[in-house]
What we know:
The chain has strands at about 10-20, 30-35, 40-45, 50-55, 60-65, 70-80, 85-90, 95-100, 115-120, 125, 135-140, 140-150, 155-165, 170. The protein is mainly beta.
Amino acid sequence: EITKIIKLSPKTGSIRGRIVEKGTQEGIGGAIIESLTTLDKTYSQQSGSFEFKSIRIGTHILEITAPDFSSVQVFAEVREDEITDISTVELFKNPGTITGTVVDYYTKKALNDVTVTLIQDSAVIVKTNESGIFTIKNLLPGEYSLKFEYANYYPFTVQDIHVLPNQTHNVDEI
């Protein structure tokens, strides 16, 4: 009996774009662009330009990161033998973070699965983990408010949270 391994090559296309600093529009060199779909990875050139050549066709979720910058995810649809141009992706410099712990008012036990909404951007919603901890990353420096909601509990809002560049603001037990 003779066994042969048959190798099939996937259909491919390309993705290209440019990573820039929000505000200045200067290219960000050395940014990491990774397809979370296929785990393919590339880096931006000094000008911020990048290109994935011969990447599998289909929908890709690209995660774009760079030291001292925010990270972002974008979608790219790759078609056979075509170049998908995701155009310009903006990252902002020195993002901040808000973190904290949510507990029951009386028992002080951690509350899991509490909904935490950033009031300034209702699209930013996170949940607390088993230890009652939540984290919101990649925030522009500035002032924020958070709304906390949990079944059978009154909603609670924390205001005047000051986020500084490259720092984590810890909101004490809520």
